[in-house]
Amino acid sequence: MTVKRTHFPVEIAGVKRRLPLFQVAPGLRIAILNILGDTELVQAAARQLGRKLSKLRYDVLVTAEAKSIPLVYALSVVTKKPYVVLRKTYKSYMGNVVQAETLSITTGAPQTLYLDEKDRKLISGRRVLLVDDVISTGSTLQGMRLVMDRAGARTAGVAAIFTEGERSQWQDILALGHLPLFPD
Question: The whole model's pTM is what?
C-alpha cells in the first residue's frame, strides 16, 4: 500500500530537496532529512559549513552515530580536521569508554552514546566542534556535551545542517537553515 506523503521543500547550499513529513507525536509532524546516500547534498553542506567555520578555533569534529556520519566525514575532508563518532552500541574492542544517555525524538527511546577509548585520547584536553544533521530537541546534543565534559574536552561550538522547532533556542548553533514544526 502506498502512503501519500506531504513534503517540505528545502535548499541546502544550492541543492534542492523535498523532505517528507512524518508524525513523531500525536498532532505533530516533522520534516525528515536523511542524508545517508545523498553525496551531492552532503558535499555541498560540508563545503558551506566549512566556510562558516573558518574563523572558529577547534581541533576535532565530533558527531553521534549514524545519520550525520557522512556529514562529519565530508566536513573533515573540507576542514582537514580529524573526526570522532560517538557510538550507540558498546563493542568490547572500544575498551574503557565514556558514556552518557540521551533521548532521540526520532526513536522516542533512551539511547546511550559511547566514546571509544582510542578517541578519548584524541579529544582529551582539546577543543571540539559538535556536528549533527538536524538539531531538534537538543537531547542528542546534550548527550554529546556530557560525554565531551566527562572525557576532558572543551566544546568550542556546534554545527548542523538544520535546526528545528523553536528558532530562538538555537541561536548559538551554526546552521545552514531552520526547519519548522508541522502541527496537525
Answer: 0.92
